Amino acid sequence: MGLTTKTLRECRRLAAACAVLPMLALAQENPLARAVQPSLSGLNGRWNGAHIEQRTGCTTDTNNGFHGTYAEYIYDIPRDNGTITLTENAVNGLHCTYFGPVTRGTWSGEVSCSDGRGGTYESQGYVITANEISMRLRVRLRGSETCDIDAILGGSRF
User: Is 20 strand, coil or helix?
Assistant: First the structure.
């Protein structure tokens, strides 16, 4: 079975169209992604897991790079005001408190830690199920130690 010139032209036209489709799809907003947001009401209580982070631009150069620790997270979300208080108790003895409102699905606010570090944070996304949580945060430390931190707080519970 031989290919004709017309068939080859048609194949090339379809291949070019198919190559453009992924770019067109990326340029479009998914209306369901805007409409469906995970419920934060299931967060209340204790979670156990890990806090991992990638630090850059730190005042102290040795603080740059990958860091991680086991942590217990205690979420407190009052039903009436839309704010979240997260207390993080790390296995290394560090305690941090994240406090701020949830606005249009984004959680942001202030973080302060028992070692004197503090700054601001903003959620970059989260997944919440009955037994698992993963929150990605952009943290900016300020004060005696400054760093830009890409953090993931992950945990489980029964």
Answer: helix
- How many angstroms separate the first and last alpha carbons of the chain? 63
Distance CA 53, CA 148 (A): 10
pTM to 2 decimals? 0.72
Domain boundaries defined on the chain: 5-35, 41-156
**Among 150, 146, 151, 139, residue whose Cα is nearest residue 57:** 146
- Give me the CATH code for the 41-156 domain, please: 2.40.128.20
Collect contacts of 70-77 with beta carbons under 8 A, ≥24 apart. 71/153, 71/155, 72/46, 72/47, 72/48, 73/46, 73/47, 73/48, 73/49, 73/133, 73/153, 73/155, 74/45, 74/46, 74/47, 75/43, 75/44, 75/45, 75/47, 76/44, 77/40, 77/41, 77/43, 77/44
| Nearest C-alpha neighbor of 44 from the set 130, 142, 119 | 130
Bridge partner list, 54: 66, 150
Number of helices (H) and strands (E), helices first, in the chain?
2, 8
Note the pLDDT tens digit of each residue in 34-78: 433 445 667 889 999 999 999 999 999 999 999 999 999 999 988
